[in-house]
User: Fold these one by one.
Assistant:
Number 1:
Amino acid sequence: MDKQKLGMLVDVAKCIGCNACTIACKAENKIPEGAFATEIRQGWKGKFPNVVNFYSKIACMHCSDPACVKVCPVGALYQTPEGIVVQDQDKCVGCQYCVNSCPFGIPQYNRAVDKSFKCTMCMHRVSQGMEPACVATCPTGALQFGNRAELRAKAEQRVKDLKGRFPLANVYQPEEVGGTGLIYVLTDTPANFGLVEHPKVSATVEVWQDYVQPYAAWLIPLALLGSATSFLSSRLLTNKNEHGDHEERGDK
Amino acid sequence: MRLLSEYREDIPRVERFNKVFRITHWGHTVTFLLCLFSGLVLYANSSWSWMGIILGGNNGAGWVHRIAAVGLTLFLVFFFIFDYRDIINWIKDILRFGKNDIIFLSKFPLEFMGFDVKMPPQTRFNGGEKMNSIVTPTCVFLLVVSGYMMWFPEYIPVSLVRIAYPVHDLAMVIGSCMVCMHAYLGSLHPGSGESFWGMWKGTVREDWAEHHHKIWYDENYGDKADK
């Protein structure tokens, strides 16, 4: 893995579901009312009295091979050299293609301003040497920000330590989308935390964007060229038969 | 060099398209082209951005696209309300696709390049016009349906919305190709003759109608017409 890449570690064993990250994110990024760029999802497993509670911070996974960047028609979404997927709100035209193509269902659409938005890992803070707002505010240290490879090593060590208490503990960092910037330490299977176990970018998105869309529109100038050829050739041929007898011809 | 055939009132003329048909046709011409030019701003963002500047940036183009799209839909509704009978007749004529149309289509490339070709008698719409009548309205229908799906995705399952994007693009490409050919063949192609006046003024020269659409002429204005 690229040494330059940044990432975020979410340790659900330390998360108490306080939602401080959600609030910090909303305040920092001016997220509109009723919408979230990061939120805590809660789940339960088992029956009383043996109920297990799950909290997980859901936000953009920062895929290395992001579908949203691929489909964005105006280049509003792009990847920084650090592997973070950011968005230029000024460029967004609100077409919602990213909203509908993300395998994690992350980008949200804000009808009030006709734009979509998602977590940018607070790159405006990170570029000033600060941590993302959610990481800076997390009271339990469940969130860590830093070098992606180092965080991965930390996560693996942490899972090893947790195995005693949580036999199903695992590191969640799906490979399917080229690897992700978010690394989760989970105490149970991803499904229990509302996470997509095997994210898959829709085939219609991939085949269309990679192979058909860039070339298909050339058929239109081709049709125009055909018409222009016919325009010239038919007139040349008609002029040759000037004394012909096709009475309907326009140029008689 | 004459571009269009001369419009002559001194020669007997017969009606080819009624007013509703013509209003719908030209309404769709304007709204389709507006949708196409504004839509290409997103589809070919790198090479077509100059059109975005004319239409008020990406967002301006987006609004032109949506308003024109609603206009296009309203023209469809208008057509259905005021002249559903003509639509049925149109479909009936398409369903008459037969041997003569196949001969027409196979000989057409020669006619297209300007050779003088003898064609078998045609119904109201010849073989080529029948193909255009099938493909272009199908594309427009797909564009309208997939367009509204993408505009209001919150009411549609996400798997369908994902299909709507390529469907919209593909229908745009095929529809635009058909429109390019249709616009040329219906006006500047020497062989199209009176077709343009049929859609612009509503009438065509009687002798042209008999020569180019023999079956249609005979059934409606000739010996077989029930007067």
Note: Residues 26 and 200 of chain B are 9 Å apart (CA to CA).
Number 2:
Amino acid sequence: MEISGICHDRNNMRPAVPVGNDNMRKLYHFHGGIHPPSNKTQSTRATIARAPLPAKLVIPLHQHAGETAKPVARVGERVLKGQLIGMPDGVVSSAVHASTSGTITAIDMQLIAHPSGLPNLCATLIPDGKEEWAPRKTIDYRDHSPAGLQHLLRMAGVVGLGGAAFPSDLKLSLDKHKITTLVLNGAECEPYITCDDMLMRERAAEIVQGAEMLRFMLDAEEVLIGIEDNKPEAIASMRAAVAAGGHQRMEVIAVPTVYPGGGAKQLIRVLTGIEVAAGVRSTDMGVQCFNVATAYTIHRAFAHGEPLLSRIVTITGNVMHPRNYEVLIGTPIAELVALGVALPDTDSYIMGGPMMGFPLPSVQVPLVKATNCIIASSKKIFPPPPPVMPCIRCTRCADVCPADLQPQDLFWFAQSREFGRAQAFNLFDCIECGACSYVCPSHIPLVQYYRFAKSEIHAREHDKQLADKARVRHDYREQRIEREKQEKADKLAAREKAAQAARLADAQPLTPQQQAEQAELETSRAHIRELAQSAVEHADEGTTK
Amino acid sequence: MLSALLVMSAIAAVLGAVLGFAAIKFHTEGNPLVDKIDDVLPQTQCGQCSYPGCKPYATAIAAGEADINRCPPGGEEGIRKLAELLGVEFKPFGEDAVPKAKSLAVIDESTCIGCTLCIQACPVDAIAGAAKQMHTVIASECTGCELCVAPCPVDCISMQVIGEKITNWKWKYPVYAMTATT
């Protein structure tokens, strides 16, 4: 990869040497970015604690991007910790497991952590407190093929823990592309969130071993671990783990703290200088990116035979004891909030960070694989936004857009529902980081407009696909009816023809003697007709007389 | 004089040959406008436009025989698209054609007598079953045209509105108070 060929922009050519950066590597800038107050120190004072076993777990069967897992446990069944309760259904899907041993009491629709506030299929598990494990099979990844390992990850329910929850096995099946660089994302750029920071501080060795497994599966040459320079403890811990493990061609790199430096495309840009263009995947350019927590989970899956049953979650914001907890998937958020002790003026809870998160529909919803942070919100921490004013086209949003878009134009098109033009202006390159809304002097909720436009476009494409399918089926039906009609007509014609042929065949064999007889018969018949005719005429004459 | 005539007729002959070749090479079967209109229509094949399907309606629009506001399943969005495609004014729905919420035919399988009438009525072959066997609607193929409801002799088919689910949920248009500054 010729880096200099990609850095055509003079601005982007400028190497950024972050403050306190002791690595000699040349780093790059991505366009835009903002510096919101990080608010990370509150939750990093204490070590990761294990959350107590809750009285009830609600495990959603759709915790990943793609299709909902098919429930394979029965209601009333006793399940063991780590037992499969949701089978991956379809290509883009992942497995779901019982987070502890206990009894499945219901499989039904329950409220989940989703911006829609709509229910989805969940399994309710009442723990028996024994934490009895299903048989665990540890493997040495070097003895297996990458395809076999991918299947294991799929069945272990491993998904990206950075937020999107995309099934990890799919990010590893890259037959066409040669991956040279594996980027491990420990940037954690969003304010308040510290789960990856604490994981890197405390479990660096396991993350690094997970990275080694990822390198093996991708057949990548080098591993670059990018961590924002506001986490010196995590950087030190990870560097120590890499040195202690004797890992070759694996480097921990401090990157400058700028939001959204933890976006996959942004981190790849900063570390390698590669700019991933619109409509292109980073794998096309030889780079694949995984979150550090995902690497940790992969290590647990292979080296300990443990599927993804728990994750590190930050509880912070308007709480008495902000801290990181290792929490079982399916734990009601209320239990976690109780651990942090929310202050009395708390009015809502945000899942994710303040920039990209969404308010939870209820505090009773269960924690899912994608839950990295719960922020107790109050009017003091997040004051209600000032009234929205018209766009003055100041283009401050364009200055900070990390995807180098023109947010003011996209806003205009989304507002007037000109979706075609929004798409032409690369709406789908927007990563919804919220930097534009953050700097907007008119306080316009820009990202909401982009989300609206994106989901409208998706819905239309879906409808179009259905219409095309219906057209094909209708055409087939018409053809079939036409064909059946034709076949019937042909059959009828054939039968008619056969009957006619039979009649002809009957008429054919007449000997000259028979013909003579027939002619004689005909002449006598004619004679009789003549006689009858004359008789009638005579009778008529008689009556007229 | 003669050479000028020759040159002109030679040019005419060459151009004529090119045009003739183009007419054969780039010949289009049917009316391309019909296909473009048909592409916009929702393909429910419901006949609510009084034509026996989407394609006949598209043909009628292309021929200028039908209005563009005869397709309730397409919604106002559909009328807008047709207006844009044909370069005519938007025309709202009349009283006789009002869009309904998207729905799905559901057969009450315990009541079904297996008469196959609905199977014959379905324009997209979305009902599975055989004579004297229970029938059922293939939900993913059903366009919600309601054509199967009327023929059923035991009234076991009902139209159920497809509600909002996680899978079809959409982000809403942002609504907020816009206050004037003094």
Note: The first strand of chain A starts at residue 49 and ends at 50.
